[in-house]
Amino acid sequence: MNKRFQIGIMGASEADATLQTLAEQAGRAVAAVGAALVTGGRGGIMEAASRGCAQAGGTVIAVTPYTDMYQVNQWVHYVIPTGMGWARNCISAISGDVIILIGGAAGTLSEAAFAWVYNRPVVALTQSGGWAAKLAGERIDHRREDVIVDCSDITQLESILKTQLARIKVPDGPPRWE
After folding, report:
1. What is the domain partition of the chain in residue ranges?
2. CA atoms of 134 and 99, how far apart (whole Å)
């Protein structure tokens, strides 16, 4: 199989300079592990992560709430315009082999819940606050035995991502459509 890993970064469209710096560093970590970045394509955390990934030579995919292919931040390479508004959060969350939470408001919380339900590993950058800090080390519900991975500092993120990606079982042979 020739599929490249995809890592989603989920966070608010409004972020202060400190959160934007963390998101940019997280985007660089995604590129460093050789994965493509998936975001919502908007501003704030999404734009900063996209900038970090793109500047580090990575690929950036945006799953947007809009129908307009060009209503994205300048760092996006590929656009998936859903026209679904907030309902697109389900698609964003399941488009990553691993999901990273940075800060976050209600939209980030919904993405964390969808990632959990659809059995995606979730990593919370706790130094970013918001839902990331509240959910780190927790189980969202009974469906899984693991917890949301607590990444207390950005310097740990690349190592945590490598560990999470190494656990993913990639199927052999051509895809099966069931």
Report:
1. 6-166
2. 16
